[in-house]
Structures are given as structure tokens and as C-alpha cells.
Amino acid sequence: MKSILTIERLAWGGKGVARAEDGRVILVSAPLALFPGEQVEAEVRWKPRHGEGEVTRWVRRDPRRAQAGCPVAATCGGCELWEAGRETAELKRSMVADLLGRQLPDAPEWRWLEAPADARRHRIQLHWTGRDLGYHRRNSHALVPVSACPAASPALSQAIPRFLDALEGRMLPTRPQRWELATGTPAGEVYATDEQGRTWNLEPDGWKPFQGGIVHRLGEARLAHRPGGFFQVCPPWAWRAFGEILDGWELPAGTLYDLYGGVGFFTALLGARVAGSVLVEFDEPAVAWAARNVPGARCVAADAAEWVPEGLGAPGDLLLLDPPRTGLAPEMCAKLQTAGAGDLVLVGCDGAAFCRDVKRLEPAWKLEGLAVADLFPLTSHVECVGWFRRA
Q1: How many folded domains does the chain comprise?
Q2: Is 234 a catalytic residue?
Q3: Is there a binding annotation on residue 132?
Q4: How far apart are CA 319 and CA 298, in angstroms?
């Protein structure tokens, strides 16, 4: 059923909040940014207690709306905030404010870190059908062919045509699959990794098999990881943002327990401020890279929720947790209730899961500081960081 709706405000995830004539809430999704006050036509599907709508056209547009800097912005499923223009940061901040105000009304005043204009992705995932190369359409597995990506670093975007030429010329595996294109820091060398973990490096005369790691030089640190392995999407901006956030809090200088530590990003960031570091990560290849990246740390290959013992740490120690997008497992939250460490930092890339985990950490832990950073430009995603002390 199509309805004409007025967007009242923005909720978490970039959805517009509208109301039916009878007052029931309708959550509205769109391929481009939504502004409060805009009027849209939407195809509405009713649930038992609310409606969900997909915008089919704009009836009244906000005058601040800007032309998208991407030719496939209206169809590509990668970025949903094109056309927000100069208002992008404020729209994202309002989404976060809505979430935190509803889920954590008693939280301390939170800090917002806006993404710099030059923040670009250092890794992208492209899909090859055997004929076309591109991103998935919004809410679909159909393909949107692309020859460039303005959300990616120039090095990656400019490599896409050469990558497509290599696929079409059968110089790379041609079976349909997902590929990851990535670059290091500073952005320069480009690497293509297939679903089997095989990697090629783009050289002047074409793509060559590659066996090494992707290197990121961040401040005084040098971090490397295997191609296709997890790392920050915008590494230079992430290093700066997390550094600013953690510098603003009175964190202890004892032992750092870096749980879900990956290849050592946070251990390297905090290494000079703590007496020692223990990094725990489930992915064994990542642990091997961490051992090279932060040689002074004790690196353990284990599931963090299983490894954490009762009473972990001493009052002068710091627990730092950067779990997967789904957040902390209930058993991890239960173990943290007995931890001996005096401080805890929780990082979360899904705001809803982060808020849930903040509540789960009570009553043993009190939220002392809260910051939110836009580490995923042009999308509705953010990174939440909370600082806790023993209650």
C-alpha cells in the first residue's frame, strides 16, 4: 500500500520516523539520505504494531539536499547517505542522539567525532558475476556495475577498471565470486583477494600473485595483516579518532587486556601507556600477525569469552573489548561482573548491540565516558566507545 508520509525525525540506522493517520509509527527506509520534514511516497507493509515503508519517490525535498557524488547512489546498497551534503554529520549525529536518548537516558554527556572530508575506505568488496563487476543493489543480490567508487580511496577506485580488464581477459580467476580490493596506509599499493584467500598485487604491468601482508603505518606504529583479514575500514581516521577518545579519559597504566584484539590495533595504540599487554583473539592467523606487530605483548589464540577467567586483572589494569558486530556474548558479560580490573573500555560498531551490552555490564560497571565516531562515512554506521569503572 502506497502512502504519502512526512518524516518527523531520524531513528537509528538512518530510518525516517513517520506516522499513519491513526498515529501508528512507520519506519521509512530510503536509498538516499532522509531529512526531517521531508514528504515522501512510500510502499508500506504493516506489522502487528507498526509499519515499515520503502520510499518510492520524494514529494517535498529539503532545500539542503545536495547532488550525489556517485552516479549509482540511488541503486547501490553500499552507501545510504548520499545527497545529505554538508548536513551528513548532523544527520548521523541526530540518529545517534535518538538511539542513546532512548536506550541509555542516564548515560554521561557523549562526544561526537565527525569524519574528516578526506576519510575514504581502504578496503571494498566487489562482486563478479562472470560478466559484470560491482556492488549489490539495496536489499538485493542483483548487481550494480561500477567502474569507480567515490567512497573508496583514490588508489582503490582507480584500480577498478584494471581489475575488470584482468577478469575479462582471464588473467585472474573468472568464476563468479566476491573479491576484496584493499590498500595499505598511506594508500598506494592495491591488492585483490578472492574467496579462497589467494591474493594478487597490482603492478605497472598487471596483477601479480602476492604472498605478503598489507602494511599500515599509523603514527609510530607499523601494523600488517593478511589480505582479506579484518582491519579498520578507514585506518588513518580510525587511528586518530580512537587516539583522541582514549587520550581524553583517565585510563590506568597497568596491564592492558586487549580482548578480541585482532592484529593488535588497540595494543599498538595504547602500548606506550601501559606496563604490559595481553592480546586475545580467536583467529589464529590474526594472532600470528599480532605477534609481529606488537612483539612486546603476550598474544593468545583463543575465544575471548572462554579464555577470560573469573577475577581477571587487578585494580590498576584495563580491559579493552572490541567484539564482533553482534556484541558481547551473555557469558562474557557474566564473567566481567567478577573482573578484578578497575577500568574497562567497550568498543562497538553496532549501536543497538552496544547499548544492550552497556546495560548487561551493570551493576558491576559504571559508564563514566561515552564517545561516538563516524568511522564509516556516507553510511548510517558509527563506532561507539564507552569507558567504565568498577561500580
Answers
A1: 3
A2: no
A3: no
A4: 14
- pLDDT in single tens digits along all 391 residues of the chain: 899 999 999 998 889 999 999 999 999 999 999 999 999 999 999 999 999 999 999 999 999 999 999 999 999 988 999 999 999 999 999 999 999 999 999 999 999 999 999 999 999 999 999 999 999 998 888 999 999 999 999 999 999 999 999 999 999 999 999 999 999 999 999 999 999 999 999 999 999 999 999 999 999 999 999 999 999 999 999 999 999 999 999 999 999 999 999 999 999 999 999 999 999 999 999 999 999 999 999 999 999 999 999 999 999 999 999 999 999 999 999 999 999 999 999 999 999 999 999 999 999 999 999 999 999 999 999 999 999 999 8
- Is 21 annotated in a binding site? The answer is no
Please check whether residues 238 and 354 belong to one and the same domain. yes
pTM for the model: 0.95
Residue 257 annotated as binding? Answer: no
Q: Cell numbers of 368, please?
A: 563514566
Contact call for residues 111 and 372 (beta carbons, < 8 A):
yes
242 and 385 belong to one structural domain: yes
| Contact criterion met (CB below 8 Å) for 34 and 28 | yes
Q: Is 322 annotated as a binding residue?
A: yes
Q: Distances in Å between the alpha carbon of 361 and those of 132, 320, 335, 390?
A: 47, 13, 10, 10
351 shares a domain with 253: yes
For residue 186, is the peptide bond before it cis, meaning its omega torsion is within 30 degrees of 0? Answer: yes
- CATH code for the domain of 19: 2.40.50.140
15 and 155, same domain (yes or no): no
Whether residue 349 is found in the same domain as residue 329: yes
Catalytic residue among 79, 299, 349, 355: 349
Residues 346 and 376 both lie in one domain:
yes
- Domain with 276, as residue range(s), is 104-117+234-390
Measured distance CA(372)–CA(107) in Å, rounded? 13
Examine residue 307 and state whether it is found in any structural domain, yes or no. Answer: yes
CATH number of the domain enclosing 254: 3.40.50.150
Question: In this structure, are residues 156 and 146 in contact, taking their beta carbons and an 8 Å threshold?
Answer: no
Structural domain contains residue 88: no
